[in-house]
Specification:
The structure is a homotetramer of 344-residue chains. The first copy, chain A, is α/β, with parallel strands linked by helices and 344 residues long. Chain A has helices at 16-28, 44-51, 82-91, 106-119, 133-143, 174-190, 283-286, 288-302, 313-332, 338-341; strands at 7-12, 32-38, 56-58, 72-75, 95-98, 123-125, 150-160, 196-204, 219-226, 231-240, 245-252, 255-259, 268-271, 274-277, 336-337. Chain A has 2 domains: 7-125, Rossmann fold, CATH 3.40.50.720; 129-286 and 318-341, Dihydrodipicolinate Reductase, domain 2 (2-Layer Sandwich), CATH 3.30.360.10. In chain A, 34% of the residues lie in helices and 26% in strands. In chain A, helix 1 crosses helix 8 and helix 4 (106-119) runs antiparallel to helix 9 (313-332). Chains A, B, C, D: Residues 8-127 form the Gfo/Idh/MocA-like oxidoreductase N-terminal domain.
């Protein structure tokens, strides 16, 4: 592989976001090549591979471990498979780009981190928000001291409606493990150098109250206290009628930065109803550049041209700890110290 | 009058804007008092006076000239009466606040200016835009050198639709004399110290093409060249479906300022249609503070507490000259030098 | 009084906000008259009265109770005097406009409410945010069903820096009693018809960490759960370098409204540093219209022309209950049910 | 070529924008391949080719005509070479993507159009603004009737300062031929179906007044009257201190659309100076997506997958006619009919 000009990547998981990543690899990243697709659903891998001129398709991802044409894997399966696949891939010497959440327990996270370290492979996690222009510029402004010491932070995720999924098929605690995990990583990343110490969460089923009895939660507000004093709020909801809404705010002793706008372009329409603009409806539209940039970076790191600065296993573990504390907080109805869910 | 704590003002012209000004005098300006209303339409003055607890109403404005209870007049009649009323009021020793346009010919303008000077009365013209917060701050920024030397300016007026007036009852050239006169004053005021030297105008009846044969014009674009090199565009239309649209822009060697927003408040609504905001529908809503501030200033000047800094007869004359040059330009189909319509 | 055309109001408390209100009464509200000023500080009432052409000044506010020229009082003293003054004024038959907080305990709130009811006087509380154009339009949009059922709300207050006060002179819990009380009222008012059931608060001294030992708190994040399921966040900080920042957000099943903008006007400056706008630096600038509108409404209600729709003693009591629950939450380090601090 | 999966493109002109396009071809467009670079400057083609892993470099572009590995050329030379190169390439059977302006006279434009038609090759012109998301959405809104019949249009170009070029080396009339040509195309495209009938231009050397004697012009305002009555303003300046400013506005009988924002991302910084945002400093940053999309479209058209909808030789000719009328207008000091410079 060392002499290759392009990184050969296999995709595992040919669902919505996996297919999008495959297309990024095949079409938007010049020095990457999609060399295989794996998905247990009959025909799914084959169909995706065909549309992207990729020859190899598997129903069993373990077939990739021994394939010398595969330099790296991108894991975009349902969350519960992330850990075993990431660990196995690392142990097979493959570089790993893993969608969030990398793991659902601290022990799992530790296993993936250890496997990557032991095998000397890159391990990057899909916290795409870091690669968005506004969020990246926001972090740079914070690093440059433009907001002083952070005191109040906010990060929110609102998925676009209508909400059509069957709540019964959504794993418990998804709002923390899969949705707010983005906001936890964002807050930890923006409040760089500080560590979360205490978490309080309120959550409910407001979009689908009928599904609450089954444990489904679709709306949550989380407060986090950091060891530098900063207080942060993370907020999520599964059904924003107006589209995909991702925003961040960092207020500090010296000022504030805000990031994120649901407005899709600079187009404004003025008519009898007033002034209006279209909004982002899909993450893959809003964050197409961020989604591409994170994989581009992964590729460039592996091809050894640049220093790794993407989110790693350790970042995934830190965000996971906040999610676990949130779940405890909801269960216990009180604030939870991070030290209750993870040893430092 | 010298010992009065409130300025006693008589309104002449009880139409839409006159009634609004009367209400400002009676209700929004503590040191002013509405002491009389005059309007030739039977009952119009009486009805307005009654709603504002004003006792005196006339159908003949000349009754005001000899009334010692009247310190000042606010002239808000149809434009063709502005000059004779302003001149007569000044000659009667009354201070004059005159709605735009103060005059329709340079000779008329000179007569009003001379009468005010001869009688030592204040003469202020209703160029309200100067008193809007954003425009005032824009001029201050320009004065502070923040845009450097102006090079490109823009001012526009779009009246809110639907257009319901009968074009046959609108005087010829109204778009220049009554609408764009605001923009001409704004441009001359923002490009402070420079003088317009050349004007080119294109105009048409696009809102009511059927009225074009009668000479009605409802849409115009004017280019002005100033003696400091700056090029300015003024633009007007009588029917903006989205409301009342007033904007200004000054671009210079050091930067740019923009002023004006049709958005009515900071409220934004996000729903299935995207993001939207309400717009200003009426000048008297958008500019309620500016309309009040200009009369407040007039009152304070007359009561001798502050130095006059409002638009005067000379400013009205300068804006009128641009309007006259526009009319020539439309008639002749070519650029017109200011020197063709007015001696400096 | 019944035959008066203007409401005669006495101000109690000639500090910063009291002086501003006095000026509103004297200059911005045509059918109100400032007839007396009371303040215990030697000379303070007299000095303010003189600047506003008001003849009567007292150092003892109780002198107002028997003055037949006083129809109503506006109480703008330090918070701890609000309850006794409001109660005494009501018992003297004076209408009461009371700055927030109206009371510091539920028992106190009940006493003021009872006194107003027993004496048949109006009681309005200074929750000025309700009178801001954007917030009022936001509530109207919610009432019109444009956001559906509220699910996530946000209200924040950030006072303009620099923070110059002596923390030792600020009463304990001021951030809840005097600052966030605005946000609590705003949230209860926007989530109309719902009742808060549970509160969680995190607070700290981040602006002045040296003052924390003395109990001073300057930064807080509060989460509120309502009985309609909605989750709300209120947030405050005493030192925003960029000025006075008041924002609101209501997200629901049908959409979202956002209210509040720190940008002072539509002026935008473009230069080598990018695009910039000025911000609001003072509440009395940002909310001059809202401050005036609330007193205007009070006056109009008493003069019997309009139905009362301003915040009453009951609203002050409801917001106070949230503040009390916050204080318990901070003391106990856990969520607090509203039922723990107030009987329904 | 018919069986190729990638379009083989040769770049002619390895200057700033040519190099950027070469990079787009090599890195951002998966089904295109950069197969050669030609530039007469010694070493220029070689250096660029090397950075992009392209093997072939020429100092003489005519070497490309007979190269069977070249399917298409992208012409990014100085403007005066566009016509001969485009014509020769078409006659050699190469598809042509030509930077604006395609020609400097109507006769030249006709020659290129004829050569492309005679040889059955694609001819697309680099009017990149059409491919910007906001402008494309604006045109779609107009097509959907959302602004009704266009009445007032505006398009502007302000190049980012500081202005460092030597005016003596800039060809005469560049502001019309190379800068405003973008705005003319944009206006003609947005006011779809209408034809320009009359043009008036004012231009000056305000950025570099010292260069005016040499004929250099850096600031211009153009008014265009269309045969559907619409009046349009195009405006340009060579030195905007705040960056690259491209905006469009179409006002019509039913509403208005505005397009373009100098703000670079959604990041906003709030500090002691107010609120600020960064601006776009370079066209290749602001329009990276538009620049890529136009070449992507060209490639897709040639590879026969999609119908051609990009700007063609006829569009280049139409925009050129406006530029020629502007030049006449400046020379003659009067409005110029389009019929004076081109037969329909």
């Amino acid at each position: 592989m060392s002499s290759r000009k392009s990184l050969h990547i296999a995709l595992i998981g040919a669902g919505r976001i996996g297919s999008f990543h495959a297309e990024s690899i095949a079409r938007r990243i010049p020095n990457a090549r999609l060399v295989a697709v794996a998905d247990p659903a009959p025909g799914a891998a084959r169909r995706l591979a065909d549309t992207l001129d990729c020859e190899v398709a598997h129903t069993d991802p373990t077939a990739l471990w021994s394939d010398p044409d595969v330099d790296a894997v991108l894991i975009a399966t349902p969350a519960r498979f992330h850990t075993p696949l990431a660990e196995a891939a690392a142990n097979a010497g493959k570089h790993v780009f893993c969608e969030k959440p990398m793991a659902l327990t601290i022990a799992e996270a530790d296993r993936v981190i250890a496997a990557a370290a032991a095998n000397g492979v890159q391990l990057q996690v899909g916290f795409n928000r870091r690669w968005d222009r506004a969020f990246a510029e926001g972090r740079a402004a914070i690093d440059a001291g433009k907001v002083g010491t952070p005191q109040l932070l906010r990060s929110l995720t609102r998925d676009p409606g209508p909400f059509r999924a069957d709540p019964a098929k959504i794993p418990l605690w998804t709002i923390f493990f899969e949705t707010l995990i983005h906001d936890f990583d964002t807050l930890l990343w923006l409040n760089a150098g500080a560590r979360p110490v205490e978490v309080h969460a309120m959550a409910d089923a407001l979009v689908r109250p009928d599904a609450k009895a089954g444990g489904h939660l679709d709306t949550a507000v989380v407060t986090i206290r950091f060891d530098n004093g900063a207080l942060a709020v993370a907020e999520a909801n599964f059904c924003a009628t107006y589209g995909y809404d991702i925003r961040g705010e960092v207020f500090g002793s010296g000022g504030m930065v805000t990031m994120g706008d649901v407005q899709r372009s600079s187009l404004r329409l003025f008519d009898g109803s007033g002034v209006s603009s279209d909004t982002w409806r899909l993450d893959t539209h809003h964050f197409v550049d961020a989604y591409t940039a994170q994989i581009q970076h992964f590729v460039d790191v592996v091809l050894q041209r640049v220093e790794a600065r993407g989110p790693t296993g350790a970042h995934a573990r830190a965000a996971l700890a906040v999610a676990l504390a949130c779940i405890e907080s909801v269960k216990l109805g009180r604030s939870v110290a991070l030290s209750e869910v993870v040893s430092p």
